[in-house]
Write a structure and sequence with these properties.
The protein is mainly alpha-helical. The protein has a two-stranded antiparallel sheet. It starts with a helix and ends with a strand. The protein has 3 domains: 1-75, no CATH class; 91-162, no CATH class; 177-206, no CATH class. It is built from 7 helices and 4 strands. Strand 1 and strand 2 form a beta hairpin. It binds zinc ion. Zinc ion (ZN) binds next to loops.
């Protein structure tokens, strides 16, 4: 049986058609909805600017679905494995920090994650595990720790401000919102919107 990885490779080499690729994806993801075959025309090949949306639609395009359903899941599995192994098979205190620099960094990132990833619980778990792995590695290995702090100092010195684009700011603030005006229901709702549109330089929200 062809795996999705092989099928996507074959498709990009034009060995199989979109219909054949669709059939392979549908085999393992029966609910997949594969209709759009186009790369986002905003970002043609060679354009490596930060994307405001994925170049391949994550729901409609086979590569987008591959990114969502296969690549992201593989990353999470690898993170889960490394995190569990460090904790259970190496040192039960591997993610406990006596070093005030690591302690502060851990507290800061965890609190930030709690507040800014709260729309999806699995993202909080994912971010916390990545933080643990990076900081646990820094605690354990002076080589990585020294270079991590040195790099952070140099970076903060050279690039004191990260300016977010308007859409990036909106993306962050969307989750921090406690209520919003819904364009669909024409009333204020509690919580955060599920849909956002950027029309005529205005942001519109719906439930
Ligand atoms: Zn509504």
């Amino acid at each position: 049986m062809t795996t999705i990885t092989e099928a996507v490779d074959d498709y990009s080499l034009k060995k199989i058609t979109l219909e054949q690729l669709t059939a392979v994806i549908k085999e393992s993801h029966p609910s997949a909805w594969v209709t759009l075959a186009e790369r986002d025309p905003q970002h043609p090949e060679g354009d490596n600017n930060s994307r405001n949306r994925f170049i391949y639609n994550p729901y409609h395009h086979p590569k987008g679905q591959f990114f969502q359903n296969v690549i992201k899941k593989a990353i999470m599995k690898a993170i889960d494995f490394a995190h569990g192994a460090m904790l259970k098979k190496y040192d039960k205190d591997v993610f406990v920090y006596g070093d005030p620099r690591l302690k502060k960094l851990d507290e800061f990132v965890k609190q930030y994650t709690q507040e800014n990833f709260k729309d999806t619980p699995y993202k909080i778990d994912f971010m916390n595990k990545i933080t643990d792995i990076a900081l646990g590695l820094a605690k354990e290995d002076i080589y990585y720790r020294a270079r991590m702090f040195d790099m952070m100092n140099r970076f903060a010195f050279m690039y004191p401000i990260y300016k977010l684009t308007e859409l990036e700011l909106e993306n962050v603030n969307r989750i921090r919102m406690t209520s919003y005006y819904c364009e669909k229901c024409k009333m204020q709702h509690d919580g955060y919107p599920t849909k956002m549109m950027h029309i005529d330089d205005k942001f519109m929200y719906t439930c």
